[in-house]
Design goal:
single chain; alpha/beta; three-stranded antiparallel β-sheet
């Protein structure tokens, strides 16, 4: 076998990749959750384990691609695993570049390939953290050991009282705020819904609006006008996807409310363009979508040069490390237990929220302990 050089010119034999295991999970939700133009009734994820010759196993779970899970698993097994075998995990950048080469095939779905890369890249980083015996947030910068945590909620519900009960439950769980779904109704109706949420949650509870690309430019500006007194922190992905960068810039500059986006992008170039075109104040790139922590950290460095703050879409067990490592990190995003039974059921050692903060696990790497019974019950 030909040796592969690391930056130090030496390959650590015990840290070479020996094999990769992939376990897809699927959980039926108790009800359907509806946003601006979509509905969710299952929660899926993929557990990826990278085994090294010396016995260190990097382990991560990522991904919420309900319709394409099998495609991601196939790419990990058939495309990325052959590229990873015998590589030294300490050469993490070399591994990532090799994986990224798989996107050159124009016949292969690049969105799925980037998600597959994210699964393996995150597991590799977990192995690196375990090799050095430190949590990843410390390895990546160690700026803070806890991150404010908000909940993705405000899905369309039948009544005003449903919204009130929802906000009360978020307080009970210990969230610092809520990213509230809008964009599926008129700006007037959505403004009234989020006004109910503000009244129920109180003035000190963080509120963001998330349109999931559901408004036109004019509708988004009208929504901002109608909610100007509600102290919203940002309006996320306000406009239709086909020209969202230019339209977001207009909403931001005309409306005067900060905007957030990035979760729908799969590469650094489009996210760079969001920054260059002054379309966003917050970048919530999703580690699952952009190819894992290796690339997410490149995007975070780019954001620092534009004075843009980093948020993160979903996957709080990873984002707490990413956001905790940098000075311009903001909020980890989570779901209610009914919306994400994976986060609340798969993690056997999930830290309890404290005063709206999600403490970073202190174990090495991601610091995760996964529940074997949960895995067996929900594996596909």
């Amino acid at each position: 076998m030909v040796s592969q050089s690391t930056t130090a010119g030496v390959v650590s034999e015990d840290l070479r990749v020996e094999r990769i295991e992939v376990i897809p999970l699927r959980v039926e939700l108790q009800r359907t959750f509806r946003g601006s133009g979509y509905a969710i009734d299952t929660r899926r994820t993929i557990i990826t384990r990278v085994y090294t010759r010396g016995g260190i196993v990097g382990e991560a779970y990522l991904g919420d691609s309900d319709l394409e899970q099998a495609g991601i698993v196939e790419i990990i097994r058939d495309v990325l695993t052959p590229l990873a075998l015998e590589r030294d995990v300490l050469n993490v950048q070399g591994c990532w570049e090799a994986f990224f080469g798989a996107t050159d095939d124009i016949r292969r779905n690049r969105v799925l390939t980037m998600q597959a890369i994210a699964c393996v890249d995150t597991a590799i980083w977990d192995a690196i953290g375990k090799r050095f015996g430190v949590p990843l947030y410390q390895l990546w910068g160690g700026y803070r050991d806890a991150v404010p945590v908000i909940v993705i909620g405000g899905y369309y519900a039948p009544s005003r009282q449903d919204i009130v009960r929802e906000m009360e439950s978020y307080h009970e769980i210990g969230f610092a705020g809520c990213k509230f779904k809008v964009g599926g109704r008129s700006p007037q109706e959505d403004a009234e819904r989020i006004r109910v949420a503000r009244e129920a949650a109180g003035p000190d509870f963080l509120l963001m609006a998330d349109a999931n690309q559901g408004y036109s430019r004019e509708e988004a500006i009208e929504f901002v006008r109608l909610t100007r007194d509600l102290d919203l922190l940002w309006l996320e992905e306000p406009c239709a996807w086909d020209n969202d960068r230019r339209l977001m810039r207009d909403v931001r500059l005309i409306g005067g409310l900060p905007t957030a986006a990035g979760q729908s992008e799969v590469a650094r170039g489009p996210i760079r363009d969001l920054m260059v075109d002054a379309a966003i104040d917050f970048c919530n790139a999703d580690v699952s979508m952009v190819g894992g922590p290796t690339e997410w950290r490149n995007i975070a460095a780019m954001a620092a040069a534009f004075d843009i703050r980093m948020a993160h879409h979903e996957e709080p067990h990873v984002s707490v490390h990413l956001l905790g490592a940098i000075p311009h990190g903001t909020y980890a995003e989570c779901f209610h237990p009914e919306r994400d039974p994976v986060f609340w059921g798969l993690l056997a050692n999930r830290p309890a929220f404290r005063n709206g903060l999600y403490p970073a696990p202190e174990g090495p790497g991601l610091g995760l302990e996964l529940d074997a019974g949960f895995i067996e019950k929900y594996r596909v």
